[in-house]
UniProtKB/TrEMBL annotation, chain A:
GO terms for cellular component: plasma membrane. Gene3D superfamilies: MetI-like (1.10.3720.10). Keywords: Membrane, Transmembrane, Transmembrane helix, Transport. The chain crosses the membrane at residues 33-51, 97-118, 139-169, 189-207, 227-245, 292-312. It is a multi-pass membrane protein. This is Sugar ABC transporter permease. InterPro entries: MetI-like (IPR000515), MetI-like_sf (IPR035906). Pfam families: BPD_transp_1. PANTHER family: POLYGALACTURONAN_RHAMNOGALACTURONAN TRANSPORT SYSTEM PERMEASE PROTEIN YTEP, PROTEIN LPLB. Residues 93-308 form the ABC transmembrane type-1 domain. It comes from Paenibacillus sabuli. Belongs to the binding-protein-dependent transport system permease family. One of its GO terms (biological process) is transmembrane transport. Its main location: membrane.
Automatic annotation (TrEMBL), chain B:
It comes from Paenibacillus sabuli. This is Extracellular solute-binding protein. The lineage of its organism: Bacteria, Bacillati, Bacillota, Bacilli, Bacillales. Residues 1-25 form the signal peptide. Keywords: Cell membrane, Lipoprotein, Membrane, Palmitate, Signal. Pfam families: SBP_bac_1. Residues 37-50 have a biased composition (Low complexity). Gene3D superfamilies: Periplasmic binding protein-like II (3.40.190.10). It comes from the Bacteria. Residues 34-59 are annotated as: Disordered. CDD domains: PBP2_AlgQ_like_1.
Length: 321, 523
């Protein structure tokens, strides 16, 4: 354009944006390698996270597959109204939040404890073996984990119930009861994910300056004191970061896992948004309605993450944005 | 210094480039995967235009047909027989096998993304009724007469598949009712029990198989009934029809449509099974038991009664014989309940085949597909699809087909093709019926025939309710859950009534009303 024209007698106004944009361009060229490195990640998010969001518009429509998004009727908030009026809405909402809270309270601290314990192990060989063993469940799919639990817990010859009978106790109906669903769920989550979760913490712990431990020892701190006053504060920001991320996933409780555990007898506590979306959308073919449910779920997730971030900042930690 | 830096940079750039490339490739791959069907359709129409020129010529290019079919066994289907059909019909088949457990979801997903194949197999038209009304599927009713074999399809059954009286689909024949009781004959003999004639006899057998040590090993290690998490094809619906429960719907004295669970026979069934469950006469975890586990209980000698499809006695006997050569299974049906005999029936078809306009672009293509199905209905091809290759997979004995293959070959090569044929012995002249070495299997065949004298039909089959289409399945969940809960003792009669009230208030009332109106309009 006129960027080549010498800025002889012209006003400074048109020249300023030109200079600014050329400066930006220059900076981009200068850091081109960084930009190129960002590219795959940016592409990923664009293609798999942002573009699909376009599909959310069908939650405001009466989507008919053969008419497509452009041809389907707009119905405003009708599907959201239906969701909030649904008698099961509060049940699903409560179940989702309860499972999330259980995750936060019972699952979240486990990898931290495990990492601290592993860090204290001096016998390297032993540490490696334990680490490998606790990582393994992460690589098994939920189907396998749930099947194993099923075989162990079933009333018809499951080993746990056989043991209970052997010790003269009553059989417990783990699989078909409202009261055992949540403990079973959280135990399986811990079993599968706790070991894997230690990786980040172990890395953070490894980065702690050994001089700090030496200094603490000089001051007479024992093992527990060192953990409390050195290790934990050192990995505090990692903990907070992971906590915020975890809260962001508030409603990602693992569709597959819950769906496998769900049955007619525990639906009252086990039906969550993910399973509901699946049943309404894919099984019953109500595409618009299930999109509306998913939309609402994401919206709740967004609010939760904003609150968590704000809390983190309030307590002087760095948030995620 | 700068040299090293430069090298690192080159590396980083290379790495980034590779990564973004692979990402793009992955995306492209992903969308290709989704569009397999549309892609095939494109290819199909190209061949069509090519074929037009050489009509009747020997070198006519094979017409490509895409279809989605249900895979029932765990084994991956072999393409030997599809290949033979391709040759005979000058087509190129691409069959997408979908496991039966997730077929409905896959169907809905394919429908939602506009990637249905040219021939869509489904259990009924419910998934796409609105689209059918909006002219998104080919109406084939008026065309059938043009085809020699297709015109043999039973008009009554076709009418059961119709939407607003118009016919959009071909159907696969199934016996109207195959449901019955399979039980351990040797156990019954050990205990001196006759074949059960009434629901009380059946109860007594289930009790005795649990309590009276039917395997005579001196241990309390058996149960009577083995059931699974399926209220329809498991024991529940069949037992309920012994008690005289209607088949999903009934018309009361006031010409009102009502669901089966408002009928008192349904409640009798609930009590009957609750009793059996609470006394430990059946597997306690049946609401979460898979079919495999259910069968395991029978073939491992843990349980003695299996209620379901009687022809299954053949595979069950084979499996049982592997575990215990002395064991013997037999079948029984026509069990008399307090309201007489009865057994529920399907509407005369096992599945239907629809032709979406999104995949079948022109009427010309539609005719080609119909011609293909017409050829499938010749005796020769129907036998090939049902029994395999003569001399290799079966032999003819007394004019009947006698299978000569082992289970695995059967499951990989022969049986999968049962899922994409149409018609059946009643509509295909010269199609072979089965010969069964095993007396119990032959008896099952007789009893399936005998079931025809006591069928309970579903009166809603030819009728339509928009609310049912929209909410029916979600509402049914309420009743299904309540049924399990009642049988397991988590719910009493009042609680079950509450579930019915919930069903009514959340849309059930409207469904009843719509069916009633549709019914009265047809009278």
């Amino acid at each position: 354009m006129n960027s080549t024209a010498p800025a002889s007698g012209r006003g400074a106004a048109p020249a300023a944006p030109t200079r600014r944009s050329s400066e930006r361009l220059r900076r981009i060229v200068k850091n081109r390698y960084l930009y190129i490195m960002i590219l795959p990640g940016a592409l990923f998010f664009l293609l798999f996270k942002y573009v699909p969001m376009w599909g959310l518009v069908i939650s405001f429509q009466n989507y008919q597959p053969y008419l497509g998004i452009s041809g389907s009727d707009w119905v405003g908030l009708q599907h959201f109204e239906r969701l909030f009026a649904e008698p099961t809405f509060w049940m699903i909402f409560r179940n989702t939040l309860v499972l999330f809270a259980l995750n936060l309270v019972f699952f979240f601290p486990v990898p931290i404890l495990l990492a601290l314990m592993l860090n204290e192990v001096r016998q390297l060989m032993f540490k490696r073996i334990v680490q490998t063993i606790v990582y393994i469940p992460h690589f098994m799919s939920w189907v396998i984990i749930v099947s194993i639990s099923f075989v162990m817990l079933t009333l018809d010859g499951g080993i746990v119930n056989e043991l209970l009978v052997f010790f003269g106790l009553e059989k417990i109906n783990f699989l078909l009861s409202n009261s055992w669903f949540r403990p079973m769920y959280i135990a399986q989550v811990i079993w599968r994910e706790a070991g894997w979760g230690t990786i980040v913490y172990l890395a953070a712990i490894a980065a702690v300056d050994p001089q700090l431990y030496e200094a603490a020892r000089m001051d007479g701190a024992g093992r527990t004191r060192q953990v409390w006053h050195v290790t934990l504060p050192a990995i505090r920001s990692v903990i907070v970061l992971l906590l915020i991320l975890k809260i962001g996933d508030v409603l990602e409780l693992g569709f597959e896992h819950v769906y496998l555990l769900l049955n007619a007898m525990n639906r009252e506590v086990a039906e969550i948004f993910d399973t509901y979306v699946y049943t309404a959308g894919l099984k019953n073919g109500q595409f618009s309605y299930s999109t509306a449910v998913g939309f609402f779920k994401s919206f709740v997730g967004l609010i939760m993450i904003m609150v968590a971030n704000w809390l983190a900042k309030t307590f002087g930690e760095e948030g995620i944005y | 210094m700068t040299h090293t830096q430069k090298r690192i940079r080159t590396w980083a750039t290379g790495l980034a480039a590779v990564m973004s490339l692979s990402l793009v490739a992955a995306c492209a791959g992903g969308s290709n995967g989704e569009d397999v069907n549309t892609g095939n359709t494109g290819a199909g129409s190209t061949t069509t235009s090519g074929a037009q020129g050489g009509n009747g010529g020997a070198a006519e290019a094979p017409f490509e047909i895409t279809m989605m079919a249900t895979q029932h066994a765990a084994e991956v289907p072999d393409d030997l027989i599809p290949g033979m059909i391709e040759e005979k019909t000058n087509t190129k088949l691409s069959i997408q096998w979908v496991p039966s457990g997730s077929y409905q979801e896959k169907l809905n997903a394919a429908f939602a993304t506009g990637s249905l194949p040219m021939a869509v197999s489904a259990t009924n038209t419910d998934f796409a009724k609105e689209a059918i009304r909006n002219d998104q599927f080919w109406e084939i009713g008026p065309l059938l007469a043009e085809y020699e074999n297709l015109s043999n399809l039973n008009p009554d059954v076709l009418q059961n598949t119709a939407v607003d009286g118009k016919i959009y689909s071909l159907y696969m024949e199934r016996p109207l009712s195959r449901q019955g009781v399979i039980y351990r004959k040797d156990w019954a003999d050990n205990l001196g029990l006759e074949a059960p004639q009434t629901t009380e006899d059946l109860y007594e057998m289930i009790r005795a198989f649990t309590e009276d040590d039917p395997d005579q090993n001196g241990q309390d290690d058996t149960i009577g009934l083995t059931d699974r998490s399926d209220l329809i094809y498991g024991a529940f619906k069949t037992v309920s029809s012994y008690f005289g429960t209607p088949n999903y719907w009934y018309i009361d004295e006031g010409d009102q449509f009502k669901p089966e669970f408002m009928h008192e026979a349904f409640k009798d069934t609930l009590d009957y099974l609750h009793d059996i469950h609470s006394k430990g006469y059946m597997n306690q975890d049946f609401p979460v038991t898979s079919k495999t586990d259910q069968i395991d209980l029978l073939v491992n000698g843990k349980a003695g009664v299996y209620i379901g499809s009687m022809p299954d006695v053949l595979t069950l006997s084979n499996q049982l014989a592997d575990m215990n050569p002395d064991a013997e299974l037999t079948v029984q049906n026509g069990i008399k309940g307090p309201r007489g005999r009865g057994v529920w029936a399907i509407p005369g078809y096992g599945s239907i085949v629809l032709f979406p306009k999104s995949a079948v672009k022109s009427e010309e293509d539609l005719h080609k597909i119909l011609a293909f199905y017409d050829q499938l209905m010749t005796a020769e091809n129907a036998n090939l699809l049902t029994w395999g290759v003569e001399g290799e997979h079966y032999e003819i004995k007394d004019g009947l087909a006698n299978k000569t293959v082992d289970q695995v070959t059967d499951n990989t090569i022969v049986k999968p093709n049962n899922a994409w044929g149409i018609g059946g012995p009643d509509t295909i002249d010269g199609m072979l019926k089965g010969y069964f070495e095993l007396p119990a299997r032959a008896l099952a065949e007789e009893l399936v025939e005998a079931n025809n004298s006591m069928l309970i039909h579903d009166p809603s089959a030819p009728l339509d309710s928009p609310t049912y289409i929209e909410r029916g399945q979600a509402l049914q969940q309420i009743i299904t859950d309540a049924t399990y809960q009642y049988v397991l003792g988590d719910l009493d009669a009042a609680g079950f009534q509450k579930a019915i009230d919930r069903w009514k208030s959340e849309g059930g009332d409207k469904i009843m009303q719509e069916y009633t109106e549709a019914y009265q309009a047809q009278q």
